């Protein structure tokens, strides 16, 4: 026999998934725009994060991630499928696939394209009506590190480029009048 439709339960489920996904999106955008406050807003106060290179609390992790990525010329993190399983009104778990590009340099100063693909295995908690990441474990599935070819930018110097620390167009939105 089919389960009776419960509109309130469906709306709570939808809102929880929306809010959890928003936390995941804030995390990714905070990484790429070097916005520590935005990245930190994705985590519960007592969160624990293990990215392999370090493991610790949210404040420690955000400081580590912002410092590491600031040493790079740019980054772009893309989300793939996000699977969320709600356990109750205050807890959920999930897995998020990602691919990330990192603009780096080798020892001689030559540009490199570092690609990392993996998954975040997460636990989420809802406190005071806000869903946030409470536990995160990063799994690396594959890595590719190649010499970068910036010939496109040299040939097209007026290309709109990404910015960081408040310098990205999406953060300024200075439209022509």
Indicate the multimeric state.
single chain
Strands, total number: 6
Outline the biggest β-sheet: 6 strands, mixed
What is the SS-derived class? alpha+beta
Order of helices and strands: HHEEHEEEEHH
In CATH, the topology is named Nuclear Transport Factor 2, Chain: A
The domain count comes to 1
Helical content (DSSP H or I, runs of 4+): 25-40%
Strand order of the largest sheet: 2-1-6-5-4-3
- Mean residue pLDDT: 94
What spatial form do the alpha-carbon principal axes imply?
globular
By CATH, the architecture is named Roll
Strand content: 35-45%
CATH C-level class? Alpha Beta
Q: Which radius of gyration do the C-alpha atoms yield?
A: 19 Å
Instruction: For the record, give the distance between the C-alpha atoms at the N and C termini, rounded to a whole number.
Output: 61 Å
Uncertain residue ranges: none
Structure, described:
By secondary structure, the chain is of the alpha+beta class. The chain is built from five helices and six strands; from the N terminus they run ααββαββββαα. The protein has helices at 7-32, 36-40, 58-70, 151-155, 169-172; strands at residues 43-50, 55-57, 74-88, 91-105, 111-127, 130-147.
Please write out the topology.
Layout: H1 7-32, H2 36-40, E1 43-50, E2 55-57, H3 58-70, E3 74-88, E4 91-105, E5 111-127, E6 130-147, H4 151-155, H5 169-172
Parallel strand pairs: 1-6
Antiparallel strand pairs: 1-2, 3-4, 4-5, 5-6
